[in-house]
Design goal:
mainly alpha; three-stranded antiparallel beta sheet; 5 helices; 50% helix; extended
Length: 139
């Protein structure tokens, strides 16, 4: 069993929201969901402003975050090039020093809209997202 303990050779960082640890050269982030806290906060009859803020924070982090991840994963699965476009768009945002103003989730959603709504990309219904060759064929 000591060899298993020695496999945790990477950094271990504990924060109030998650745990980061390294195992055999891989990094993992462990996030503990707070379902009981959400249920308790929803059940309050007269919540304080702090309780409302905590509830909203937990909903954003756990519920909306999971929905966002599921959506982006589906787009990346259906359109493999979308992950490269997201990376390029995030790099563009960072190069213009806008990273603090534009959340990375917003960049992911903007790119996802290009792949899922062809008219948003100016393709006029060609389908398939950017660079898919699904245009009108008038060349």
């Amino acid at each position: 069993r000591d060899e298993d303990a020695d496999s945790f050779d990477g950094p271990i960082d504990v924060t109030p929201t998650h745990l980061d640890l390294g195992y055999k050269g891989y990094s993992f982030r462990i996030v503990v969901r707070a379902d009981q806290e959400l249920r308790m906060l929803r059940g309050l009859r007269n919540p304080t402003p702090e309780a409302r803020a905590l509830r909203e924070s937990l909903i954003n982090r756990h519920v909306r975050g999971a929905m966002h991840h599921s959506l982006i994963h589906a787009v990346h699965t259906r359109h493999p090039s979308s992950s490269y476009v997201v990376r390029l768009a995030r790099r563009w945002v960072a190069s213009h020093m806008l990273s603090d103003m534009i959340p990375h989730e917003a960049v992911e959603l903007l790119v996802a809209s290009l792949y899922t709504e062809p008219e948003a990309a100016g393709g006029g219904g060609g389908g398939g997202g950017p660079g898919s060759g699904g245009g009108s064929g008038d060349q």
